[in-house]
Structures are given as structure tokens and as C-alpha cells.
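Onboarding guide, step 5: your first structure request.
Type a short instruction followed by the sequence, for example:

Predict the 3D structure of this protein.
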Amino acid sequence: MTPAQLRAFSVTVRLGSVKAAAADLAVTEAAVSMHIAHLRRELGDKLFSRTANGLAFTPGGLRLASRAAEMLGLQDQTILEVKQAGSGRRLLRVAASSLFAEYAAPGLIELFAGRADDLDVELSLHDPQRFGLLLAERAVDVAIGPRPATVDNAMICTPFLNYQLIAVVGADHPLASRSGPAGVADMRDQTWLLGPSAVGRAGLVPLVIRRLGVPEHNQRIFQSHAAAIDEAKHGKGIALAVAFAVAKDLADGDLRELNGPQLLVRGSWSLLALGDREALPAAAELRRFVTTPRATQAMLRGAGVTPGRFRPAIHVTLWS
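The system replies with C-alpha cells like these:
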């Protein structure tokens, strides 16, 4: 088996067709089919067949799909580690949910990376529902965000920071002057100013939006949560905010917290990583460090990062 053959099969499994795999790999369909044919002959397994509903995989094909992603991830990780060894530096790849990345990651990364002169940290944003897959394929070394619904036995999930999500409006917003709780119908009809964490199903922000039944035409999604909160300060609508991040704005009167049914929600962030035997030493070290009082203080303080320590690889999608 060659990496090219495994990659062709892996992409075919992921996209569900040879044609889509060829387009993704920028090769011809014949090239993808040739790679898969070599695998079939070598393994003595049909791997999959075409049906009216798409591709139907044999048990062996499903096993190969899992192994192919893992082997390709290990290959990429090995190449990266060899390059790092030659340069004398280490790289820790961190996947994070958008809410954690914006509010708590900077302080944590600055403090953690500052403890070692040879360590760089790369942060990328991902849907928390993909954390397990990213780790299994060795695309990242650790993943931080809301705890996944299911955790593979080969992985360790470490909860480390509880937080509170609140609804806020500007001082001039009509709901700011109400003395009692805001009704669900009143809030549902308002404009909701949301950060990128509103997209998807995982996390507290989508949970609140679903609970209240806010229609899509009342949702405005911004490139960052800070941009959404800034709009809220100007009375443009309701924003959902991490309580510790807007404490000063509430104290200064720039924002007002709304009280109402199903508005006050609490959550926690967790670090997901492979077991210590498979994880990079830096990943295992971060897993232990993230639960310390110093790390908690750094996340709550929200300090910036030193450019030489932090190489962001943030991938942001804009929604209209």
C-alpha cells in the first residue's frame, strides 16, 4: 500500500464518490480508480460497491477507511516531527471552539508557550463535533471546547474551566429598562447578534437559540463574538456573552444583563487528547497544565500573546 493509494481511498470514503475524490485531489477519476483497484488486489477485498444510494462498504472497506486516515495522519505527523527535530523547535497544534479561542485561549497559550523557549503553538478553529476525528487522524494534537457527546476510549477528556453565558443589551435598548424578566416571545422577536459559535449544533450558544426558537431571519452572525457585543452596546440587538469577558462593560453600564427564562446557562470547557502513550509530550503537558490555578487565572485575565510564541492559523467562515 502506498500513501497515494490510501489517500485516494480515504477521500473517496469521506466524499462518497470517486468523482468527488478526484476533484478534491486534483487528479483524474481514472487515477483514483486505479489506486483503489491496486488496494483491492493487494488486500483481496472488494472494499465497496456502488448502489443507487451511493457507496456500500464491506466490513474490510470500513476497517481500511479507519486505518487509512490514521496512517496518513501518522505520516504527516512524522514528517512534521522530523522537520521540528532538525530546526530545534517543537510545534503544538491546538484545535479550539470559536468561543474558547476568542475569550480564553490567548492567556492560556501565552503562559504555556512562555514556559519553553523551543515551543510554538498553532491555534485553529473547528466545529467541536469534529474534535474526535481530527485527533484520530493526527491533524491536531489537542482539542479544546465543549465536551463532545461521546469520547473514544483511546482519548482522554479533561474538564478544566466552568463559565456562564448571559444575554446582554446596550443601555439604550428597549429591553434594558424592564424591571422584570423578559418574555420568551419578546426576546424571540428581537435581533440576535451572534458570534461564529452560533453556527453548528454543539455548545451553549446554539442551545440558547434553539431553546428560544429564534428564527433565522432574526439572527445576525459576525466574524467574532467581540464584534457582536460591540453592536449590542449600540442598541442593535441582543448578544450572548461569556460573563467574565463582559464584567467591566456591565459594571460601567455599557451593557445590561437580561433576565428571563432559559437565558442563564452554564457550561464548561474540556481538553480532549489522545492517551499519554500516543500523544506528543507537549500535548500531555498541556493537559496537565490546563487545570492549574495559574492557567485558570491566565484564561480569565485574557492576556494577549507574544507574536514570537503564537502562530495563529485561524480559519474563519463568513455567513450572510
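Each response can be followed by summary notes, for example: The chain is about 40% helix and 20% strand.
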